[in-house]
Design goal:
The chain is an alpha+beta fold. Helices cover 44% and strands 16% of the residues.
Length: 324
């Protein structure tokens, strides 16, 4: 594979829709491991930009906390390099909320929501939603880019960027960083391939030293990351179903209530345990028992199960056949 943007090396050629088996045939487990590993490699540091997320109150010496990000073109380049343009596709759905009063400035305004459905042939599909206030003239573009990058992160692409805790630097008169921080080892392609990984505990300790608001923001982001990490293990039906039933949204990033996020995570972890029970039972009873269990709950496939209650019924039905 080419190594543009820090692509993983070692494969002879990119995977295409043909070599991946088309839209219906999945990759082998070994191919999936290699592809996911290639997707997880950080971008080339040259493609990384820095965004100011907060500023200090000291006007005599302006400072800001910045975090790294990559333009969506870096994500597109990685997908094209790994799968070719014919090996993946995306689609968008756009809707807006009703007008409501914004808490920060009490202005009445709506939000635009863009949902990106990303499919990698042979690997699967993931959806994610981006959002922006409609009084921003670039609201649609920003929400679209956010949705696309979040969908990519479900496959592991760009996910490492979520582990940054922020760096304080001096700002110029236009509140732009006066310098570019040096990326730590695990945030570079070379360091990642050599086995370096982010120290989660170090990030947690850093946030514990910050103020109360930042600690709350960290807890929310941590819960969101844990929930998003369950998207692939649960499958689209269960993941989206639980989010919609409990959080009334398609994306955990739209939920800013910590207790509600904990509830969603708890239910998803329960669903993950249920799927493990199901796999164990199917090893004994055989795939035919799953077909009978699905018919009993009026479903055509396990992907249509979108609640813990339905999954529980399927598991019990299959387990009952192992005891018969």
């Amino acid at each position: 594979m080419r190594r543009t943007n820090g692509h993983a090396k070692g494969a002879a050629e990119p995977l295409t829709a043909h070599t991946a088996g088309g839209g219906n045939n999945r990759l082998t487990e070994e191919q999936i491991r290699k592809v996911v590993a290639a997707l997880e490699v950080p971008f080339d540091p040259k493609t990384i930009e820095w965004r100011v997320t907060r500023t200090s109150r000291d006007e005599t010496k302006p400072r800001g906390q910045i975090i790294p990000y990559a333009d969506q073109r870096a994500y597109t380049d990685r997908l094209n390099a790994l799968f070719t343009p014919a090996g993946w596709t995306r689609s968008y759905a756009v809707h807006t909320s009703a007008n409501f009063e914004r808490g920060s400035d009490h202005k009445t305004v709506a939000k635009v929501f863009v949902t990106c459905h990303l499919t990698i042939f042979g690997l699967g599909s993931h959806s994610a939603t981006g959002e922006e206030w409609t009084d921003d003239e670039n609201a649609g573009t920003s929400a679209e880019a956010q949705a696309f990058k979040r969908a990519c992160s479900c496959f592991g692409l760009g996910r490492y960027l979520y582990y940054f805790t922020g760096v304080w630097v001096d700002l110029d008169e236009r509140k732009r960083p006066t310098c570019r921080p040096t990326l730590t080892g695990w945030a570079t392609p070379e360091g990642w391939r050599n086995g370096l990984r982010p120290d989660h505990q170090e990030a947690a300790d850093h946030h514990e030293m910050d103020d109360e608001a930042d600690s709350e923001a960290y807890r929310l982001n941590r819960l969101v990351r844990e929930i998003e990490a369950l998207a692939q293990p649960l499958g689209r039906g269960l993941y989206r179903g639980l989010l919609k039933r409990l959080g009334h949204t398609w994306s955990p990033r739209q939920v800013r209530d910590e207790k509600l996020l904990q509830k969603v995570l708890s239910h998803m972890q329960g669903a993950q345990r249920g799927l493990r029970r199901l796999r164990v039972a199917l090893e004994e009873s055989g795939p035919e028992s799953l077909e009978r269990a699905l018919r009993a709950v009026n479903l055509r496939s396990l992907d249509e199960a979108n609640s813990l209650e339905t999954l529980h019924k399927i598991v019990l039905h299959v387990e009952s056949e192992t005891k018969a």
